Amino acid sequence: MKKTVSLFLSILLLIYLSACSATNNTPGKSSDMSGSGQEKDIVKEEPVRREITILTAGDIMFHNPQIKAAYTGKTYNFKPSFEEIKPIIEKADIAIGNFETTINPDKKPSGYPTFNAPVEVLDAIKYAGFDVLTTANNHAMDTGTKGLLNTVEAIKEHGMIPVGTGKKDDDKFAIVEKNGVNVAILSYTYGTNGIKAPDGMVNLIDKDKIKSDIERVKNRSDFVLVMLHTGTEYIRKVEDFQYALFREIADMGADAVIGGHPHVARKSEVYSSNGRNVFISYSMGNFISNQTAKYTDIGTMVELRVVKTDTAKIEDARVIPVYRSIIKQGGRTIHQVLPAENIDKYSDKVPVSRRSYVKQVYGELTDIKDIEVFKNR
């Protein structure tokens, strides 16, 4: 009889323990021993917000008067040209300029019509804060194939990235990563002033190629920026072919399309492409040069604030006009880039009549009503 009672109690104990175990492991319930029986809150993680700024600048050119003025007797010093604009450039996460000259040590420094700058210009451009230089422009072949290839290597040696020219089998685009955002930068030119480049060494504007390149970089990047060197020189009005070309490239998947070559700044706009807002600048004009004709001394920089959560989008865009002054300082002539926004600050460098002109053009270049679509996202 005692054995029967003992067996019965053992069975009851097993049933009790099984019930406790089942209760404590019920899905969706607390598995701690507090006895609260409260369900755990399921926390959904928000996508990480990553933000960068991209800055683009117009044509960087060195004419003979600039080269002569920068000569110190032993070497060249171009750094004073960028002193006033440097704080804006170096603040950007990725700063891009159009390098419209060559570096060929086998030839003497020269300006127009065949540009060949002393290598010291790259010291100054790096010092100013630039990270990437586009080299696909009409002066890419000014000193021949050797000049083209040496320019690419010299840019690399100075810690910057060339985009648009190179050896035939090289990728002529760049994918630059900053703060977890991958930016693809592509560059193309309408031609090379009739000097034929070896096949594959200069990115020419060819819509099939551009589309193919965009497709190549799309799965490796978050944001695609296309730089185009095209447009009739010294004409401020956007031409019909430009509207068609730039917008078609936006429709191919570019997130921003930025132009250069006319040597005068043209309008910018926000273009709606397949539900995306694409920033387009039809010409940034000159960044620095010795050109003095009206409007050639005022260019623009474009600043894009790109934010990535699930995808990367422009959250703010700004056009920054710049004025190239020519001043005498310490017995030297200096071609210097100045922010046009606060031009009155430079009363010692820009006469009153010239400041009025800068203010007028500044207002024209920054009057972009549809840019608000970014700011009001």
UniProtKB/TrEMBL annotation:
Entry keywords, A to Z: Signal
InterPro entries tied to this protein: Capsule_synth_CapA (IPR019079), CW_Biosynth-Accessory (IPR052169), Metallo-depent_PP-like (IPR029052)
SMART domains: PGA_cap
Domain Capsule synthesis protein CapA, chain residue ranges per copy: 53-291
Signal peptide range: 1-21
Family the entry assigns: Belongs to the CapA family.
Name used for this protein in its record: Poly-gamma-glutamate synthesis protein (Capsule biosynthesis protein)
Taxon lineage: Bacteria, Bacillati, Bacillota, Clostridia, Eubacteriales
